[in-house]
Amino acid sequence: NAGVTQTPKFQVLKTGQSMTLQCAQDMNHNSMYWYRQDPGMGLRLIYYSASEGTTDKGEVPNGYNVSRLNKREFSLRLESAAPSQTSVYFCASSEWGPPGSPLHFGNGTRLTVT
Amino acid sequence: QKEVEQNSGPLSVPEGAIASLNCTYSDRGSQSFFWYRQYSGKSPELIMFIYSNGDKEDGRFTAQLNKASQYVSLLIRDSQPSDSATYLCAVNGDGANNLFFGTGTRLTVIP
Known about the structure:
The complex is a heterodimer. Chain A is mainly β. In chain A, 0% of the residues lie in helices and 51% in strands. Chain A has no helices and eleven strands. Chain A has strands spanning 4-7, 10-13, 19-25, 31-38, 42-49, 56-57, 64-68, 74-78, 87-94, 104-105, 109-113. In chain A, strands 2, 4, 5, 6, 9, 10 and 11 form a seven-stranded mixed beta sheet that branches. Chain A is globular and about 35 Å long. The model of chain A has no long low-confidence stretch (mean pLDDT 93). Chain B is mainly β. In chain B, the strands form two sheets. In chain B, strands 2, 4, 5, 9, 10 and 11 form a six-stranded mixed beta sheet that branches. In chain B, strands 1-3-8-7-6 form a five-stranded antiparallel beta sheet, with no helix packed on it. The mean pLDDT of chain B is 92. The interface between A and B is medium-sized, with 23 and 23 residues.
């Protein structure tokens, strides 16, 4: 039982390049989330999917797109990376829709944009 | 703007002592409150959640919630060096499909 799996673990991009962060959970959770964590800023929600087939913007969605591919998978795409997107990205899932269900986090992706 | 405030620390306590971590929040409609522990370079892991006013105990951890004063705290009894980590407070907003996180309090337990 792997929980929440994110790939890749590390990535270096040049400004303007694109990439997709992958996330999959095997806990049969309904809701999935993408957060970024920056020093002194805490965890901030980028996008979330309350259930399969739905996605919604969080606090900091600009420059990102998401796809809820199925109940297990939720991907985050950077179309044209910028240095301001250098961060640690966490995918999370929860059993039922927000707000009361605890989040279970993946191991994170460290992204550097030069 | 929903805000969750934590003292960034560092908070240092000797081994075996009680560590007290505090968190205040701005949205009076918040219903769910979580404490996560995050070791350096790792992902957050859930320690406890609390929904009702009062205390909730789980082993060496006790979460305390006071909605009237809009604060939630975490007590760690018999602190161990392995408890050294950053502790994140997370709160949902009234009607919000999101958890808002504080910036975390860094705890160091001194052997």
